[in-house]
Amino acid sequence: MGLFNSSADENHSSINWMQLQSVEQIDQVIEQSTSRYVMIFKHSTRCGTSAMALDRLQRNWNSSDLPEMDLYFLDLITYREISNKVAEVFGVWHQSPQIIVVRDGKCIYETSHFNISFQDLVDHLGGIEVA
Length: 131
Known about the structure:
The chain is of the alpha/beta class. It has one domain: 3-Layer(aba) Sandwich (Glutaredoxin), CATH 3.40.30.10. It is 31% helix and 22% strand. It is built from 4 helices and 5 strands, in the order E-H-E-H-E-H-E-E-H. It has helices at residues 24-32, 48-60, 80-90, 118-125, and strands at 18-19, 37-43, 69-75, 98-103, 106-112. It has a 5-stranded mixed sheet with strand order 1-3-2-4-5, with helices on both faces.
């Protein structure tokens, strides 16, 4: 079983999501971002647009096209307090669905809704080397 506890999720195993389930993990994200990129995908389990964006991202995912990064998945319906804290800490307007990429403790890329695409991530981050 995968992230959504369904056999259909087995087709989307190329993204190794870590669950963002506590406010304390935001400090971990900031710390990790000092040595690598960290991406947070904020997902609403009640939103068709969010489901489509997630599916499209997962179907096109190829980590070899991007700098090495840690990938967090945030179910913002279950963890709304964490979602609000992410928006506050990284200075982004709350959206759903939303991708936030963090480097050195700061949001360096953010997009939402139908603008979420693997190719857009590649266009913004693909040529960046991690020092």
